[in-house]
Amino acid sequence: MTSHDPRPQPATDEQVSAAREKAYLEAQVAHLSQVVHGRAVVDQAVGVLLVLGRITPAGAWDVLREMSMRAGIPLRQVAGHLVAYARTGELPDAVRGELERHIGAARQPGRMRAAPRSAPDGPPSVPDAAEGGPMKTVGPPSTHQ
What we know:
Pfam families: ANTAR. The protein is mainly alpha-helical.
């Protein structure tokens, strides 16, 4: 007759090592997931700025970075606000002020090259840089002569 000892046995070195490796890999996966999500939001915000400012991708990145620094808000948070703005039209005042200022500056001659404009599916909202005023709706260029 064999007896079974109900007390737990101490983990072997191999089991301890495997458990540590598993914990490490799970932490890495969680970290990389956050990085990928954060990068996706930043890339989407750059896209929003491309449409709003009709500027180059490099120019949009510069605007996003400058907005973050001047508003004192982390870059990913500013990016999140811009992506939400594209869906809802709502933007915190500090970010809106920086957006209007930077898009107006980005459109000044010699500041940043404008990207070639293609007709969008719908009219995007862009700041009125000439007036420095509120957001307005701008449609695609007219094809009528």
